[in-house]
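Tip: read the tokens left to right.
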């Protein structure tokens, strides 16, 4: 198991960052390595973002020194979404079958978490996001059909999309973690437009369902000092609370969003008029 550490950053840092250093501080790549768990520990909300890619053998989520506790989830909760083939996640002896795009919330205090694929030729890929937790809630499987869906945008503005809320107070109780998928319709490329800020929460976007040659231009920074990162499929980007977060792709795509912070009000945001962006 490999762990990468990312420090929290101040918006003034963006003024002097070139492309390479911008990517170093905010972009998360190589999340899936065959028969391994890759994790990134961010000092933004103490979020841990990563991937488990079991192919030939099951993978157990082990304790790491960065969380300062054993087991890994002693003081944390975990959200999981399978973006690969049929898989299985076993939590303290209880197995949960995971179809593509199925989600799982794993509560604080869970001792043993094991990821595995059903078929080696079409292995599962488990995207992982963990946040600190102050209370324990039950582990819950959320199938893609059970997620709460909302249709937003239009083809006229190239942002017709459906938001699927998995870990959300209306679907599944959690301590502070929110997680879901946004899927764009064909002909739409913009997500989260017009953009917004939320001072009380930080967010991570994980882009997927892109062809190998396709890219998403992810915009971040303060409204008056915007920057962009060019992203490929199965890469994630950290959005601190002071940063906008929106993207436009060269084709349709989907992304997993995850948030943690002071509250779980999905609509708690500060809109940014598009005309004010610089």
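Filled-in amino acids:
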């Amino acid at each position: 198991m490999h762990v990468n550490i990312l420090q929290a950053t101040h918006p003034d840092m963006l003024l002097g960052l070139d492309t390479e250093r911008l990517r170093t501080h905010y972009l998360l790549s190589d999340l899936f390595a065959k028969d391994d768990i890759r994790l990134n520990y961010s000092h933004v909300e103490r979020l841990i973002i990563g991937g488990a890619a079991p192919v030939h053998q099951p993978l157990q989520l082990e304790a790491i020194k960065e969380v300062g506790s054993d087991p890994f989830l002693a003081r944390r909760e975990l959200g999981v979404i399978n973006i690969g083939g049929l898989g299985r996640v076993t939590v303290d002896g209880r197995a949960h079958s995971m179809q593509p795009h199925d989600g799982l919330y794993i509560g604080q205090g869970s001792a043993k978490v094991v990821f595995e694929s059903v078929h080696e030729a079409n292995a599962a890929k488990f995207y992982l996001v963990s946040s600190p937790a102050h209370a324990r809630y039950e582990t819950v499987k959320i199938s893609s059909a059970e997620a709460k869906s909302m249709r937003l945008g239009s083809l006229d503005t190239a942002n017709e999309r459906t938001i699927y809320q998995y870990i959300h107070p209306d679907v599944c109780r959690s301590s502070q973690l929110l997680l879901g998928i946004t899927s764009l319709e064909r002909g739409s490329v913009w997500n989260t437009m017009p953009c917004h800020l939320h001072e009380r929460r930080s967010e991570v976007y994980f882009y997927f369902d892109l062809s190998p040659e396709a890219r998403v231009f992810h915009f971040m920074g303060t409204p008056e000092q915007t920057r962009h990162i060019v992203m490929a499929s199965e890469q994630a980007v950290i959005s601190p609370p002071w940063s906008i977060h929106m993207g436009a792709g060269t084709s349709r795509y989907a992304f997993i969003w995850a948030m943690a912070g002071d509250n779980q009000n999905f609509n708690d945001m500060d809109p940014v008029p598009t005309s004010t962006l610089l």
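The mean pLDDT is 95. Residues 2-276 form a domain with the Jelly Rolls fold (CATH 2.60.120.10).
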